[in-house]
Amino acid sequence: MTLQFSPFLPWLAIAAIGLVGLALAALGFWRGLRGAVIRALALALLVFALANPVFLQEDREALSTVVPVIVDRSQSQDNEQRTAQTNAALEGLKERFARYPRIEPRIVEAGDDGTSDTPSTRLFDALNAAIADVPRSRVGGAILLTDGQVHDIPEASAFSSFEAPVHALVTGRPDEFDRRIEIVSAPRFGIVGEPQELKFRVVDDGAGPGDTARVTVRLNGNEIASEIAQPGTEQPLRFTVPRGGNNILEFEVEPVEGEITTANNRAVHVIEGIRENLRVLLVSGEPHAGERAWRNLLKSDTAIDLVHFTILRPPEKQDGTPINELSLIAFPTRELFVDKINEFDLIIFDRYQHRGVLPILYYDNIAQYVENGGALLIAAGPEHAGNDSIAGTPLSVVLPANPTGAMNEAAFYPRLSDQGKKHPVTRGLEGANEEPPHWGRWFRTVDVQRPDGNVVMEANDGKPLLVLNRAGKGRVAMLLSDQGWLWARGFEGGGPHVSLYRRTAHWLMQEPALEEEALTARTFGRTLQINRQTIGDAPGEATLKLPSGATQQVTLSEAEPGLYRAEVPTAETGLYEITNDDLSALVHVGAVDAPEFKATISTTESLKPLADATKGTVRRLVDAEGETVSLPPLLPVSGQVRTVDENRLSLRMTDETVLKGINSLPLFAGFAGVGLLLLAFSAMWYREGR
């Protein structure tokens, strides 16, 4: 209760009246008048009444003490033991808080929300958000349920304004260990066929076994190395980039019994293969209208080194021209087809026929070149159906189709076969989806027997026009017509000859994007896109293995003919493995060096400096032997917490209140005040009248 004044007159006027009264009282005392005391008392009561004293009583309600409880739900906590410990500790805290009605717990679960590419455990961001709407004087402390791997711990000096204990209850065992692998340095690009080098390291966190580790290295799904690594030591790996486009290196360290997680036992690195100056050998049997189309296409690509020979003068040609008058370049057959044949990425025979220019043994060299991984394209014309066809040489063992000896001489629209509509070489060719196709006609094809491989384009009556096939490790394509130049010249509107020729050449050189059976995956932020290319039937569901080890089935829907796709939102960060039939693909979601996976063993050291500075405690929920969660009791403290209690969770209780109402009592209001004044003046008159 407090006393306040609500004067009826200005204070200056009351002061003047008080001075006059004081002077009169002093005069009465000086002259010794009877009733001077009573007169002074009456004047004092009058002045006091004019000041209007009022007693005020405030009705206040005590505010609760806010205690945020931050629960770590990050991926490093996502294992059976730590999850069980966290849940048990949370339930125990709820029971203890229920005993203290003046304490308001605010439970906040903090984890990766699936939006960050570099996930980390940020408990103090969650703590600040939990108490953003209350003054710091009401915060009694903070309790963190975590494994200790927190990545936004502030400096103790920067957290001094908190003025309440920060406690950490740590999950996990003190003797934990974990083995992981990380890529230290690696190139992002590499020239196909050139050696490359990267460095990786096996890391043992905690009390690891200390022995060596076996690391298996796979390139595009094929094992290329098995290394013995010493934990903590950088180890080099040399390899050769086998193909253009994405090449996926996968490192897997053998798990150790007792380690807390195997989610970080694998790492991937994607290296972009770049073909440096592709070497293409184009051999034209004789000058013809389509020769320029091939030459112009290959010369327009700056990444291609073209070696082109046209057989203008076969050995049997004898016209009496003196040798010294000939200006032809001799065809270096031995150099091209024996000494340097393996230096070429693609060999093209354009309307070439066997007329004694190449010794018969050289065709066998070409066949071996293909079977060992080379690429061969046959652009056939009428000569392929004749007696000098190269199908009658040892090269026939790699050719997908043998000629019957006849030519089909009729106008036709080249059409995509059922397989061609699905095959990435021909799928989506401009003008193919109309009937008749929106391109010009051709007028002849080489008639062949039933071909091997995939017929992706057809002539009239379903006869093969473009055949793609594999031979050993290499690839062969046969274009059974020499009329492609009509599209290049714009005949009847022309056609997509550039796309057709280029895709065919890239498929022959094993471009990954043009594989007819392939499973690939890529990410767009936190969305995982799975693509399944096939020229067969629908591939069914794909199996997705998450970084945590859990699996889920994913339905693939047809996006285009032969292309099935699914988009899956992801919450976990790490290495995902997708399998379908005999195919598999790996993709990493999020940053490969995310803090969440650099260290996963639980620790009490990271939060101890901050806890010591705020008079809080850091303790484990279980010891090295037990499985039962041991939770300390709460200790409400009035005023500032000045000492650390290792066995209890000290909480500073707030003394903050909220005003609910005010009761006022004027002393001179009503009959009581008037009566008191009348009594004083009556006593004065009575005394003076005697």
UniProtKB/TrEMBL annotation:
> InterPro entries in the record, alphabetically?
Class_I_gatase-like
Per UniProt, the keywords (alphabetical) are: Membrane, Transmembrane, Transmembrane helix
Membrane-spanning intervals of the chain:
12-30, 37-56, 665-686
Protein name (database record): Membrane protein
Species of origin: Shinella yambaruensis
Q: Which SUPFAM superfamilies match?
A: Class I glutamine amidotransferase-like
